[in-house]
Specification:
single chain, alpha+beta, Aminopeptidase, 7 strands
Length: about 190
């Protein structure tokens, strides 16, 4: 049975489970040139997760996906420079941290942004992605937002189909600064 939970509603010991942090930090792969592979992203971001900005999907007790969102200039990750310096050294760490900050700050223009969605391979094609999208939209509506925005990388037809099927409309392509994405929006009832 699929269950979707706001991360901050989990018991404290469950919210600090490294497996959940590992799942969440797998996202942002389009920024791998700045924040590294999945292991590196875990080291950089796992200690700075804002669990009140994450919906988690569970099949029984097994986490199978997440939807992360951003609103009021706060997303699922706190911006901390120290992990970047530890990981990459002072100069490279500072440059990568500034690049990551710029990618995060440019998203502040969205009142409510579906920041990232990921479903474990073993749970794909079972409605988990659609359930997470719907739960994220319901959460946004419950917070008083009238639209949910997202950016999907160009060439990710599977994700684009998921969002179109769940009420999102295509808006425009954006090529600069990085990565090239298509904006999509859904008006909430």
């Amino acid at each position: 049975m699929l269950r979707i939970v706001l991360g901050s509603d989990l018991a404290q010991e469950r919210a600090t489970d490294p497996a959940l942090a590992q799942l969440l930090t797998q996202g942002r792969g389009s920024l791998a040139f700045l924040i590294g592979d999945t292991d590196c992203r875990f080291r950089l971001l796992a200690g700075a997760i804002h669990w009140d900005r994450v919906l988690l999907a569970f099949d029984g007790e097994q986490p199978v996906g997440f939807a992360a969102f951003k609103h009021r200039r706060r997303g699922p990750f706190g911006l901390q420079w120290r992990p970047f310096v530890r990981e990459f050294g002072v100069l490279s760490g500072a440059v990568r941290f500034v690049g990551f900050c710029l990618s995060e700050v440019r998203e502040w223009r969205y009142p409510f942004l579906l920041y990232g969605l990921r479903v474990a391979k073993v749970a794909r094609n079972r409605g988990v992605g659609a359930a997470l999208v719907q739960a994220c939209c319901a959460h946004a509506a419950g917070q008083g937002f009238h639209n949910v925005e997202l950016e999907v990388p160009l060439g990710n037809a599977r994700a684009e189909r998921l969002y179109l099927h769940n009420g999102f409309a295509l808006r425009r392509e954006r090529w600069v600064p990085f990565p090239p994405v298509r904006n999509m929006s859904r008006t909430l009832p």
